[in-house]
Amino acid sequence: MDQTVDVIIVGAGASGLTAGIQAARQGARVLILEHMDKAGKKILATGNGKCNFTNEKQGIAYYRGKNPAFVLPSLRQFGVPETLRFFRELGVHGKAKRDGYYYPASGQASSVLEVLLMECRRLGVTVECGVGIRSIQKKHGAFLFRAKQGLFQSKACILATGGKAAKKTGSDGSGFPYILGFGHHVSELVPALVQLQGKQPFLKEAAGIRAECNVMLYIDGEKAAEDLGELQLTEFGVSGIPVFQVSRHASYGLLQGKQVSVRLDFLPGLPRQQAVQLLEERFFLYGEGKSAEEALIGLFPQKLNRVLLKESGIPLGKPAASCRKQELSRLAACAQQLLVDIAGTKGFDSAQVTAGGADTDEICPDTMESKLVPGLFFAGEVMDIDGMCGGYNLQWAWTSGSVAGMAAAAYAGHPKQAGNAGITAGKRAMHDKDTAVKATHPPYRGAIDRENCKNTGRKAKGSKRVQNQETVHRRPQKRQG
Questions:
Q1: How crowded is residue 56: how many other Cβ atoms within 10 Å of its Cβ?
Q2: 3-state helix, strand, coil in the chain (%, to 5)
Q3: Does the structure show a pLDDT above 50 at 439?
Q4: Which CATH class is domain 195-346?
Q5: Has this prediction a pTM greater than 0.85?
Q6: Conformational region of residue 162, where left means phi above 0, alpha means psi within -120 to 50, and beta covers everything else
Q7: CB within 8 A of 301, min separation 6: which ones?
């Protein structure tokens, strides 16, 4: 099977499928190569199968990486308004929920994947699954892909291979050797949005506790991050959204051999003196005839009551009214600063996303094109950008995939044409009227600013690089597929 097309995309995940649609809408012939047996497996796992596909709250505060501001030029081209319109045109109606989260009205991640695949079929985008790529090289202005299925060739290439999180979905890190082979740097890869493993013995007893908590992460004794939300205590450590939000910092701290810990505040927002007064009221004013454990019922989950009392050195059965003020002061400190020393994370297999990736200093933020290799583009998690919980990683997939797809099509000789977005202008006006979040920036028009995409020739700190020799790479690992 030998094929020659305008754009070849490696990876049929969220960013790859979006890139394929946008490139094809501009008239480019598009082929997507996927090494798994099916496309879009990771999409199906997002949002516990419900697919939180974007969030109306946007800005660099919601994205992480060496340079989070890298996301801004592309978000101005294809942000939340464009995303909602894009999916509404395809058939997915976005339903806003708490904190600006958007889910498909169907409540099914499969709806999101299916409409993307339907649009690929409608546009004639070929999605080849089970393709084991052996090498990618650029010769005489064309990209050559050697696979066990044959030779593929294109004018432009988009690497949308994902990171290393959730290997079973296809995100196994197999794309990074290609990136290194083209001379790009790759920063250290660590799991993010992941559970943390703790050392304290009380965790086994505390397993199953869910409680509102402010999670404060410390690295070598200095506070590095914090987040408020529902904490889950497990027999191995800590989990829940606030833990996920701080986990990338923990991963890098552990990688550097630093001491990492979290302190848990189960009375968030309450000054210490008020916390002490609250406990004194429960123990001294209303504690007659109650044990210390009974005095806490209604304030914390019952399992947590026992943990806090034991960690404070207060016997569970001690009469509440006989407790000393010093003991209650110690209990308040424990309730607001419960220490968990972190031994590690649950790893890439449990992580939702990868922190680290292709160095964004070597990628043009307006087009996702390589500054080192003309015609090479990037999309999604493969770059050194990761988002917080709340739909931000999928938004980055839609955004970077759309920008890369349009720019790659333009590079291959198919600049954006008016009226090629998939619906008529009249219908678009109707959709725009009904869309809750309005676009404030013009979309990408196909002009690539190559002056701002020149190679800086600089080696990034903390990243790896393989010299680019005729921009060829053959993977040393076992073959895909």
A1: 17
A2: 35, 25, 40
A3: no
A4: mainly alpha
A5: yes
A6: left
A7: 209, 210, 211
